[in-house]
Amino acid sequence: MSLFHTLPIFLCIIFFTSTTTSTTLPPSSPSFPSGLSYHIDCGSPTNSTDQFNTTWLSDRYFSGGATGIVSEPLRFRHGHEKTLRFFPISSGKKNCYTIPNLPPSRYLLRTFVVYDNYDGRSHPPSFDVAIAATVVFSWRSPWPQSLARDGAYADLFATITASSEALICFYSFATDPPVVSSIELFAADPASYDAAAIGKNDSVLVNYGRLSCGSKQWGPGFSNDSDRFGRSWQSDSDFRTGRSKVRAMSTRSRISGTEQKPNYFPEKLYQTAATAEEGGGVLEYELSVDAKLDYLVWLHFAEIEERVRRVGERVFDVYINDDNLTRVDIYKQVGGFAAFTWHHTVKNLSSSVLSVKLVGVVGAPLICGIENYALVPSDPSTVPEQVVAMKALKDSLRVPERMGWNGDPCAPTNWDAWEGVTCRTSKNNTALVISQIDLGSQGLKGSISDQISLLSDLVSL
């Protein structure tokens, strides 16, 4: 069974300038490796091709761990949901997948995580997941029963720059073994989702809801429909609230203004919509979120009803958490059968629910899609030269798996550094550096790599 779910995260967030923007023709953006994607079937020994003609790679790029199979594989629709990799404490508290040779770009990362009592212990694990130096997903035991049994998809947008690799790390709490069933990467335009306005490469966009209104779930991995960035779209039906009767609409007509840079929103998104049945009605949605974070809300509209042919025939107000933010007349903005988007940054949200409400002024409100992303600023990572030095030291001393010397030696900062390693921030506060290494009690044998000289901030060895 496939359930889409974005997990809560618990981080301190810096504040961004609030923006409210409508868009008809997105600005130009640099080229990106369109079509580049990786699909890793964690725990699987062989490559495979699914019903949507997606090639799944056998498990690779991992630092350690072991493989497992869900306890009831017949309940899962896709092959990549049935196998998993887990990281026992003997592999260390921190383990990573490192996907190499990636062109610099923004990427969508999607994971599927399931427990399904694969180990017979009836204890779903507690662990964190990080992309590079930034914690993005947190799993805490006990999981809700349905989540433990059926698993969950979660995704985000992150930027890979000069490092040319995607570093996805798992950190164990207590002795719990982290688990993962699949990892996917899709290249996305670096300028997508108003990147310049929200901090360029400094933010990770964590998905807290991506809804297609008036339709079923669709997108790569769930249907034969395409999306340039690999986005999957949930049905909006489970997120509607309020008393107004809602009518689903659809059209096969072409929608102009779709598949355009930098966001490449697919035409299918605008060929369905939800509207209130009576004129002047209300459409209401509620999305679960984590408080004290900033959220980027992106709304999608297209006038796909033939009878609306003039400006002023459908007008409605948009409220987010009871704040009246804008008045929308789709036909006035773009005419009929054309895509129109509007987005807004909600700062330091104090509630655990983000509500979107469309209130009819003339006629009934209409919406095609809703996206909601937490804006998570990227945490600092270790100076690259010092990472090189520490990896060389790991190899020369033959550091065992149990010490968890994987990924970044110092980051994320809310995890422990590599065992025996002490870190601090650099003098300019832009990165992390290694100040001390104490391996005296580990019984290690080997030589000290010449690259130890790259540890220019080391005061004790």
Automatic annotation (TrEMBL):
It comes from the Eukaryota. Residues 1-22 form the signal peptide. Residues 40-374 form the Malectin-like domain. This is Malectin-like domain-containing protein. Its main location: membrane. It comes from Glycine max (Soybean). Pfam families: Malectin_like (PF12819). Keywords: Membrane, Signal, Transmembrane, Transmembrane helix. It is a single-pass membrane protein.
